[in-house]
User: Fold these one by one.
Assistant:
Number 1:
Amino acid sequence: MARLKHKLSEPPVPPDRGVRAATFKLLLDTAMTIIKESGHIPSVAECAARSKVSRATAYRYFPSRSALVTAVIDSSLGPVRKLASDNPNGRERVHELFLQTFPRFKEFEAQLRAAAQLSLEQWGLERAGLLEEEPYRRGHRVRILEHAIEPLAPLMRPAVRDRLHHALSVVYGIEPYVILKDIWGLRDREVEKTALWMADALIDAALRESDVKPVKTKST
């Protein structure tokens, strides 16, 4: 099982009901709207002002931008993180994951880019010793992909399996959208086809290295 060197950021637990639940949702929806409309990561104070909620109240729900963005991403990708498949074909299971996630990537692209932006910003501040908030730590894709490649794992040496796991984590996420859309100007559909092509190429390479004849999915 994969192990990360850092603890993943977990979203604040939303209140169950009542005024507190409504306030939490209002602040979260406001943050998502600001990101989508203006392309920048709002501060907790900005969300409070836009929502007409006191700063003190807002900070009780979201003590930092990291907590706020973690909640935004959990709201955007929560259903994907709970996906489970009993498909015994590893390649098909990887395809299922990608195909079920693509619509969420398109719908919440602005929010996912914002999360990546915050991670990069905090990386620079942390290196300079200037980071003054709890850092936003990404990595839920590690567990998601581990489940996807589970049927392939017995066919490979541990080192090859780990390399495939690492490589797929580069292909699965918002990063291919950033590169292929911003640099190449590709449309969403072309980004998706290219990401699947890369995933297949990586699986093929891992199987060849393990002396296993690749078996294509029904869709390829």
Note: The longest helix spans residues 188-209.
Number 2:
Amino acid sequence: MTPNRHNSSAQPNSADNDVVLDAVRDCVLAVGVRRTTMTDVARRAGLSRMTLYRRWPDVRSLVGDLMTREWIAVATGSMPESRPELGTRPPLIDGLVAGVEAFRAHPLFQKIVDVDPELLLPYVLDRRGASQEALLGLLAGALREGHADGSVREAPAERQARTVLLILQSFALSLRTMTDEDDAELTSEAFLGELRTVLERTLTP
């Protein structure tokens, strides 16, 4: 637990926000979202509950900000270094496939799927969340770069980004319903190979 160095009347700054999100991550990994309380998070973060409530109304809003931070970190961390001689498309596809693999292996995602899967349903069936909006922005920017260097099929960038994200989400969220790790043709690795093929055929001019 972080020592309480904060005045309870102060608003959290960005450093405090990371401390709080680290605390809620630890709570969720330990007991799941439904059993996590603002008191638990405040105690782990070394802040008062009132300080948390000034920034987040409840645990679910905290978890929403945590997911945004973690998923964007997965996406950006999965992208390889730019290699202009290759064009945009090859490293982009490498990063997208690696990102799906990293997302599925992320401890927070695994915990939510195992204990609180209903938390993900609104972002699959009803509305886009902050992390999806941020990912769409990253995708659209990369696709425009690919349009400019000729390595990505020309199409409206926003629509193309949304289409790619739909493909990625289906693999990230539902892949385990289709795999059979005892069958070499139906392993996770084999399906990620299919994902690479789908992206190549979708994005190649």
Note: Confidence is low (pLDDT under 50) at residues 1-12.
Number 3:
Amino acid sequence: MAKYFDVHPENPQRRTISTVADSIRSGALVAYPTDSCFALGCQLGSRDGINRIRSIRNLDDRHHFTLVCQNFAQLGQFVHIDNDVFRAIKAATPGSYTFILPATKEVPRQLLHPKKKTVGVRIPDHAVTQALLAELGEPVLSSTLLLPDEEEPLTQGWEIKERLDHVLDAVVDSGDCGTEPTTVIDFSGGGAEIVRRGAGDTSRFE
């Protein structure tokens, strides 16, 4: 049964955030809000967490997982970025974008795209997510909470708790955060390729 945490969307309670962070460090799989929609998240190196996300979402090994980072310094530990890409990403963060980039050796192999050796990274503009990342001190391994055969992500914390109670360890609810996922930009080929148009404005990458 998943624990349910009701968190203030702008001033998240520090004790609650600390409890959620501790549970992630202990191997928990949580549903949490972002600036685009709810996401599934676990500790970076959690093989069990990865397998549970794959199971819930029915994902194959070509799916790009995302490392949700607190800031640019943290993001830079996990992906290779040249100067032009650095400037482009820096100008768009924090925000509702996921960037696909070549991964560094800091990224566990099971997270990498099997052929491209790439990984998704993002820096969200959401107070609750930022508070959780600050408390953890490392990225959260994440994937959009979009269930198989459904067109839109789940957006209500109570519904997530109700429908996924048996497969999650915790639900962090700070209110509706929308159904539009991030805009995905692939920089792994050198230039900017728009893979998915979502909540982030694509005009700067066209």
Note: Helices lie at 14-25, 47-57, 72-75, 83-92, 127-136, 157-164.
Number 4:
Amino acid sequence: MSSRNSPISQPITIRRAVARDAKRLTRLVRGSGAYAGKYAAAVAGYRVGPDYIEAHRAFVAVGADEHGGRVLGFYSLVLAPPELDLLFVDDEAQGRGIGRLLVAHMQSEARAAGLDRVKVVSHLPAEDFYHRAGAVRIGTALANPPAVPWDRPEFEFRVSSE
């Protein structure tokens, strides 16, 4: 069975991102297969710096391995206005439930911060993922050339108070 389709087989920990994660997170964004081809320019110079990590609620999913933990994905939650700013899962780790774990963690963080909704402007190839993860389509973010030359779907996660 390929790792892309197998369930999570190793312990996964979600922890707050720290400044030393910045280079790994930047590599994850720039190396994302979802941004290949016509989308590559959108992340070519993208940088997740220590300043970004310190300013936002950024969390990483780490898998246990012989090197003390491999970053499998991450997200960033902005509180005002409430938005899921970034969510990436390593290409080799996709299809194993890590994205869903990150979304569930984000919703828990949003709930703890008193939020009832979190918006996300989706990358087109991620649209189906957000639907499956429970987000509701609320509109379209219009293209903003030259940075983003295509329209993008807007979603909203509704956060229950539990």
Note: Helices lie at 22-30, 50-55, 98-112, 127-132.
